Amino acid sequence: MRMSEISGSSILVVGASGGLGSVFARQLSAKGAHLTLVGRRDDALHALGVPGDVIAVDITNDEARAGLVDGVVARQGRLDGVVFAAGAVAFGPASELSPATLDALWQVNTRSAMMLLQESAVALTASSEAGGSPFFVTLSGVVAETPTAGLAAYSAVKAALHANMAAASREMRRMGVRLLDARPGHTETELSKHPIAGVAPAFPPGMTPEHVVTRIVTAIENDERDLPSGAFA
Description:
This protein is α/β, with parallel strands linked by helices. It has a single domain (3-228), classed as NAD(P)-binding Rossmann-like Domain (Rossmann fold, 3-Layer(aba) Sandwich), CATH 3.40.50.720. 42% of the residues lie in helices and 13% in strands. A 7-stranded parallel β-sheet has the order 3-2-1-4-5-6-7, sandwiched between helices. The protein is globular and about 50 Å long. The model has no long low-confidence stretch (mean pLDDT 96).
């Protein structure tokens, strides 16, 4: 995918008010994309000041999410790309995390991405058939490669996300849809400061969100299909 192809494309950014999602929104908008910005809070999405359609929705709620893709296509005429940047983290020993925490990690990080991929398949295939280069981006993170003590459950759901993307990528390639999973190391966002359980350990300084997002956007432009942790060095 060449840089000029981002300009004018219709891209859905999920988790657009978050630490990485907001940077995606700004960078893709600067390149001329027509954005649909999705997050839980309408005010936080509008506060970004990024042009685009704003949809406040709980991405884990099947009923609330059901018409999301159809709504994008109705307003924009098509869907050319999805960036799934929503996420939640929890810290603590695997033997101590509550069932509610485990369910939340699975719902936010994995199941909602898997369902949205399924729900966007027809629209993305249509983009390919119209001559586009459609894509679906996830961020499973370095924990999908190297499960980490104190982050066992988070590592597990992210590894599941990566496995789904790797297998689905082979399935959807013949439909002309490119799946791209990114696995950056620790990144300096607010995610680790607001866990749904536990307390973050003292991480060494991480990468900036701008560095991580710039690398992923470059991968979108260059038709890359996988970004292991080493790609962010």
